[in-house]
Amino acid sequence: MNTLPAGLDSEGRTTEIFVHNNELKAIYRGQIIPFFQLPYYLIRILRCEMRARKLYCESIGISNITDENEKLEAYVKHEYPVFDNIPDIDNEGKTNREVPEDALSRREREVLSLIASGETDYGIGEKLFISPFTVATHRHNVMQKLGFRNSAQASAYAVRMQLI
Fold this sequence. Notes:
Elements: E1 7-8, E2 14-20, E3 23-28, E4 31-34, H1 40-52, H2 54-59, H3 68-79, H4 106-116, H5 121-128, H6 132-146, H7 151-160
Antiparallel strand pairs: 1-2, 2-3, 3-4
């Protein structure tokens, strides 16, 4: 389950992981902090994801790292490689992306709103009377247009833009 970077924590606050001076950092509760100062449950989510992907970790060459923190850091840096050293959200949790209001179609905004509400493609399709494959196409288009890498980023954006 990819909840980071640029996702929402359990209390609806934005969280983002990024690299600054080759160190993992995070924006959490409006502050930039070292990665390993994130709440334990967020670190645990990433550790569980990493452990579940044992073959993947072997394929990227991190399975031989013995220190668990170093291994997790290498995993996160490899899994989310599109770091630009600039957070996508500021200390107040607001996006610094400039997205024109008309960038998304009405249907894409509807799909994005339902994604942010936690609906599956199948559930969205039922609500909008469209195929789950059509939902997947809309999801892909939203991600491409907004430049997001995962649904957590899109959901955080939808919350900030008050689409839900």
